[in-house]
Structure formats: C-alpha cells, structure tokens
C-alpha cells in the first residue's frame, strides 16, 4: 500500500474513525490514539519490538477495537532534515505494516520527540528514570501523532498541510 501524506490520510477516514500513532523504537513501539474528532492524541500502550507479523496482528487488534482508519508512523529524519538509512528503514517498515494490516499510513517527522518527552517528564512530572522508561515510548507516539493532527488541521477543520 502506498504511503499517504497526512492530509490525504485524514481526508480518507470515515466519520468518527481514529488515527493510530506509532513510534517504532529498537526495543519497543509506542502506540497512541487520536480521539474521534481528530483533535487530541493520547498515549495508549507500548508493544515489544518483535517480528513484523506479530506487531501487525497486535496493531490490527487495536485498530478493530478502537475503529482506527489509518496509521501515523514516526519518521526518524537526521537532525539536519535529511533522509538517511534510519528513515529509509522506517519507511519500509511502515509500508510493510500498512500492507499487512490493510490500514493506510502516513509518515511524520519524529526528530527529538523522545527528547522532548523526556525533558517534560523530568521537569514537569518529576519522574524517576525507571518510570520514564515505562511511559516514554507511548508518550513519544502521542507527541508525533499530535504534531501530525495539528499540522493537518486548518482553522475551519479541513486538512491542508502535507508531510510524508
């Protein structure tokens, strides 16, 4: 399945369908859900990084239970914005996951999402390192999904900005 830009993905959703945000890390995959109005992203869970077929089954289960119509997957661009090997691997992973789940997907820049979440958890929530490790992946997924939702919403609520 081809990857969409976020505005086209959003426009393809049925009324009240949600988007599922994914932050694929080396050990865990953070998962976040949008609300049905596509205004707010919330942390949902974290999945253990394993075979893609297992992850696809887990994502499909969440998607069915939550009426998810599409995926927003973090794109690890280099700090200078260039598209390196990590970004290519993430794009291939997202495309394969999309094919296996039957859900359309869009990529969204995830640069510094985990760093921003960690800074917040330290300064605002005063969390210990162990507790941060438990929540950072799903919060980073929510951070990525929220940025995509914000960028694809114009003041009148119609999608306008694309990034993939």
Describe the structure.
The structure is a single chain. This protein is an alpha/beta fold and 164 residues long. It is 45% helix and 23% strand. Strand 5 (68-75), helix 3 (85-101) and strand 6 (105-109) form a beta-alpha-beta unit. The relative contact order is 0.24.
Span between termini: 14 Å
Whole-number radius of gyration?
15 Å
Number of helices: 5
In sequence order, what are the helices and strands, one letter per element? EHEEEHEHEHH
State the low-pLDDT regions, or none.
156-164
Shape: globular
Q: Based on DSSP secondary structure assignment, what is the total number of beta strands? A: 6
Structural class: alpha/beta
Quote the beta fraction: 15-25%
Chain oligomer state? single chain
Average pLDDT confidence is 85
Main beta sheet strand tally, sense and closure: 6 strands, mixed
Helix fraction bin: 40-55%
Task: Walk across the major sheet and give the strand order.
Answer: 1-6-5-2-3-4
How is this fold's topology laid out?
Elements: E1 3-4, H1 6-12, E2 18-24, E3 28-34, E4 41-48, H2 52-66, E5 68-75, H3 85-101, E6 105-109, H4 113-123, H5 129-151
Parallel strand pairs: 1-6, 2-5, 5-6
Antiparallel strand pairs: 2-3, 3-4
Helix pairs in contact: 2-3, 4-5
Structure summarized in a few sentences:
With about 160 residues, the protein is α/β, with parallel strands linked by helices. The protein contains 5 helices and 6 strands; from the N terminus they run βαβββαβαβαα. About 45% of the residues lie in helices and about 25% in strands.
């Amino acid at each position: 399945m081809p990857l969409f830009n976020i505005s086209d993905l959003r426009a393809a959703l049925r009324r009240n369908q949600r988007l599922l945000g994914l932050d694929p890390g080396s050990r865990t995959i953070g998962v976040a859900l949008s609300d049905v109005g596509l205004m707010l992203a919330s942390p949902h869970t974290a999945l253990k990084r394993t075979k893609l077929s297992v992850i696809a089954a887990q994502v499909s289960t969440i998607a069915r239970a939550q009426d998810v119509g599409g995926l927003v997957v973090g794109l690890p661009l280099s700090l200078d914005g260039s598209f390196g090997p990590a970004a290519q691997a993430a794009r291939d992973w997202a495309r394969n996951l999309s094919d296996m789940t039957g859900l359309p997907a869009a990529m969204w820049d995830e640069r510094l999402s985990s760093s921003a979440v960690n800074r917040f958890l330290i300064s605002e929530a005063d969390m210990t390192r162990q507790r941060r490790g438990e929540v950072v992946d799903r919060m980073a997924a929510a951070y990525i999904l929220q940025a995509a939702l914000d960028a694809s919403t114009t003041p009148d609520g119609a999608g306008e900005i694309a990034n993939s």
